[in-house]
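Hi support team,

I'm opening this ticket because the web form for multi-chain structure prediction keeps timing out on my end. I have pasted the exact lines I submitted so you can reproduce it. The total is 1046 residues across three entries, so I didn't expect it to be a heavy job. Is there a limit I'm missing, or should I split the entries? Thanks in advance, R.K.
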Amino acid sequence: MADGGIGLWTVPLAVFGGAIRVSTPFLFVSLGECITERSGRINLGLEGTLVMGAMSAYGISYLSGSPWLGVLAAGITGALLGALHAGICSLPRVNDVAVGIALMLFGTGLAFYLGKPLIEPTAARLPAIDFGWWSDIAQVRAALRINVLFLIGVALAPLLYWAFKTTRWGLLIRTAGESADAARAMGHSVLLIRLRATMVGGFLAGIGGSFLSLFYPGSWNEGLSSGQGITAVALVIFARWDPMLCLWASLAFGGAAALGPALQSVGMTSGYHLFNAAPYILTLAIMIITCSPKRTLTGAPAELSITR
Amino acid sequence: MTTDTADSAAAAAIAPAADPSFLQRHGQAIEYVLIPGAALAGALVVFGIFVALFGKNPLDLYFYMYYGAFGTWFSWQNTLARAAPLILTALCTALPAQLGMVIIGGEGALLIGALAATSAALALPWAPPLAVQFAMVIAGIIGGGLWIMLAGALRQYRGVNETISSLLLVYIALAILNHLVEGPMRDPGSLNKPSTREIGAANMIGTIPGTDVHWGLVFGLVAAAAAYILIYHTTFGFAARVAGGNIRAARIVGLSVGKLIMTICFLAGGAAGLAGMIEVAAVQGRTNANLAAGYGFTGILVAFLARQNPLAVIPVAILLGGISASGGLLQRRLGLPDASVLVLQGIIFVFVLASDALYGRIGFLKGKG
Amino acid sequence: MDFGRISRRHLLQGGAALTLGTALGARGALAAETTIGFIYVGSRDDYGYNQAHAQGAAALKKLPGLKVVEEEKVPETDAVEKTMESMINLDGASLLFPTSFGYYNPHVLKMAQKYPKLRFQHCGGLWTDKDPKNAGSYFGYIDEAQYISGIVAGYSTKSGKLGFVAAKPIPQVLRNINAFTLGAKLANPKATTQVIFTGDWSMPVKEAEATNSLIDQGVDVLTCHVDGPKTMVENAARRGAMVCGYHVNQSPLAPKAYLTGAEWNWEALYPKFVKMIAAGETIPNFYRGGLKDEIVKVSPYGEAVSEEARKHADEVKSKFMSSDFVIFKGPISDNKGKVVIAAGTDRGQKDAELEKMDYLVDGVIGATS
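Hello R.K., no limit was hit. The queue was backed up. Here is the completed structure from your submission:
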C-alpha cells in the first residue's frame, strides 16, 4: 500500500466505480426507452439520439461555456428526434423498428457531420460531487466522485416505477401500450400519447448522450458511443419494462464494462477480447435463462411490435 | 414530406392525360416504382437543401453523385463492387422478415462465415483450388447459417427476442474473431495487422472477365434470385409467408413453425456467411479485423428499403453501392465530410419508410371498386 | 439547371488532369499541376493518427502547382482500392498516400501492379524486394520519441509506476511500450510500466476505464498508443496524473499535466518527397527514419518537467540527432526472464528483427496475449 496501489482490490473497486461511471448513459437511454415501449412503440433509433445528444451537448457547452445548457440542448435534440420518430410512425403501415434503424443512421450521421469541428476543442465539463471525503484512500475518493446526472437517473427509476403504477399519466401510457383500442375507447388519442412518450424517451436518451461527452469519458469523438444506445434498448427487454430492473441492469452493465480493463491491470491478461465482450455475453445469457417460449414476456406491452 | 406530396401531386397532374384504365389495371405495379422513386427524389431534395445550408451547390452535389456512382464505366464498376456484399447481407434480414422476424445480426454471420471459410481453406492446403473454393462456400454458409440459426432457435425454443439476440451475437462474433485472429489462428508473419494465414493466391476467386468486379456479385445475384423463387414460387415459401402473416393460423393448418424458423434463419445466415467467404476469397485473402466493415449493417438498410423483397434487394443494393461509391467524390470535390453519406442514407431511409403510407392511396391509380 | 454544361466542363477538367497526371507519372517529374491523393482510415479531425497525416497533407497544399485531394474514413477493404482508382481515374492523381497500415496488403499491392506508372507511398514498413517498384513504404521510428518521453516520465513519477494504454499487442505498439520503459529505466532503474490493451484503436470508454484502473494501481504518469489520445490525456489529468502525448501535441488539453509526447512530423516529410520527385529523383522504396531525419519529433517539455529531466532527455536527444543511437542494446530480457537480445548485440533501428517484436521487456507489467 505504501506505493499508492491497492493491488487486487482494484477489481471490485473498478467494477463498483465502473458501475457508477459507465452506467449513466445506459440508465438514461433504458429509462427513456422504457417509457416509449410502455406506450406500445419501440424506438431503436436511440443510438442515434445518444450520439446526437453527446455532440450537441458538447457543442453548446463549448459555445456557451455552460455545461448545463449543453445538457438541456441534448435533451431538446433528443426530444426532436423522438418527435420525428413518432411522427413517421404515426403514418399508417409504417414499421417502427425500421424507422428506428433509419433514425439511428440519420442521428449518427448528422452528429458526425456537424461534430467535426468539435473533436479538438475542450468544452466546459459537468461538475462532480465529492462523496468520498470520508475516505483516506485516493482510489475510493476517485470512484466516489459522482455526477449529478447519475443521481438524477437513480432517482428517476423509482419515480417512474411509481408513476407507471399510480399516476393517471402512467395509466394512460400503459393503456396505450396494452390495448390501443381501450385507450381510444377512453377517448384518448393513442398517437398523441405515443408521440409524447417517444419525445420524453428521446429527451432522456439525449441527456444520456450529454453524460458521455460532458462527463465520462468526457469529450466528443466519433467512437464515443460504440453501441451503448442500442445495448441500452436491449437492456429494456431484458429488464422486462420495469424501471427498477433497468436501474439494476444498467449498473450491472457498467460494472461489466469496467471488468476487462480492471482484470488486465492486476495481471489477468489472456483473452481480453472475450472479457471485453462480457456485457453482451451476460445479457444474452440472462435473456436465455429468464425468457420462456411458453408465455409471453411478463411485463411486455401487448401492443409492442417486437413481442407480438 | 412536403416534397413527397408535391411529387405525387405533380404525378397526379400528369395523370389525366394518360389512359386511366391502363393506370388502374397496372396500379399496383406502377405504385411499386412510382412511390419509392418519389421518396428517393424527395430525399435527394432534402439532402440538397441540407448541403446548401453549408454553402455547397446542390446541383454540383447531384452531378457528382451521378458521376461518381454511374457516370463512367469505372464508376459503374466501383458501384457494383460495393453492391456485391450488400445483396447477400440484405438477404440475412429480408428472408426472416417473411416470417415476421427482424434479424439485424448479419454482420456477425458475415464474420463467422469468413472465419469458417478461412479455416476450411487452411485445412485443405493440398486440395485443388476449385475444391478449396467449394469447401469455403460450404463452410461460409454453414458458419453464418448456424450463427443466425442460433438466434432463431433462441426465439423458437426460449422465447428470446431475435432482434436483440442477433445484435448481441454481432458483438460476440467480433470478439471471437479478434480473439482467434490475435491468438490461436494468428499467422506469426502478420506483424502489425494480426491476421490468419493467407488462403493462397491460387484459391482466390478473382474478377468477372472484362471487369474489376469480383465474382461475389454473381453469387449475390444468384442467391437473391434463388431466395425470390423460394419465397414466392415454392410450397415452403408459401408456408413461410402464411406463418409470417399469422403464426396461429399456420399452426392450425399444421405447419411446423419451428422448422420454418430454423430453416429460414439458416438460409439467411448462410447468405451473410457467404458474403464473409467472398470478402475473404475475393478481397482480403485471409481473415482479420478488416472484415468488420459494416456490410452487415448496411444490409439491414438495403433489406428494409427493398421492402424485404429478395429481388428488389438487387437494385437497392446497387443504389446504396452507388451512394457509397460517390461519397468519395463528394469529399474530394465538394469538401463534404465522410458522414454526408450516412446523413443521406438516413434521409432516404426515412422517406422510403414514410412513403409506405402511400400505397393504395394514390387516387388516380385506384380502380372504381 | 444546365446539366449538360456542368458535366462537360467537369469531365473536361477530369480528363485533362488524367492525361497530365499519367504523363507526369511516367516522367517522374513534377510540372504545372500534379494531383496528390491522401487516404485516411479514420476521421481526419481525430486529434491523433489521422490528423497528423492531414497536417502533412495541409503542408503540401501550401506548395505551388500541387492539388491535394483527400478522403477520410476509408475502410481497409476493397473500398480503399476503389478510392485509389477513383482518385486516379476521376481526379488524375499521380501520387497516392494511403496512410493506414492495413491498406498495404493486398490493396496497395494490387493497385501498384495495375497502375505501374503511378506512385504509391504507403505509411508503414511493409515494402520488400518482391513488391512492385512503384510502391513504397515510409515510416517513422517513433519509438525514439517514446524513449525520450520515457526518460521524462521516469524522472516525473513519484510512485515509480508508469501506465500505458495500448490498442493491440502488435510489434509497432510493443516497440513503443518497450522503448518508453527502457527510457524510464534510464531515469529510474526501478520504474515499471503497466500496460492495458483495449482491443481496438478507438474505444473511448475502455480507454477511460483503463486510465482509471491504472491510476487506481498507483500509476502517476501515463501514455498511450491508440488512435485518439484525447480521452486518456483528459481523464488522467482529471485524476491528477501526468501524461505523455502521442501522434500530435495534446498539451492544450492539459497544460499542467502534459510532460512531453511522441509526435509525427509528416509536415516535414511530405514536402521532402515532393521535392525529390520534382528534382527527378526516385523516393527510396523503403524510407524510414527517426528524430534525426525529422520524421518524428518530441513535444516541447511541459512546466512540470524538472531541470534534471530536461537535461538528461536533451542529452539523449542530441545523441539521436548526431549518431545512430541504439535503444535496443543487449542484454535485454523480457518480463518473463528470457533473454531476447543477447549481450553484445545491438539492434539498430533498421534491424528487421525489431519489426517482429513479440515480447515486453523486463519492467513492463502485462502480457502480449
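A quick check on our side: Chain B touches chain A through 45 residues (CB under 8 Å). Let us know if the file doesn't open in your viewer.
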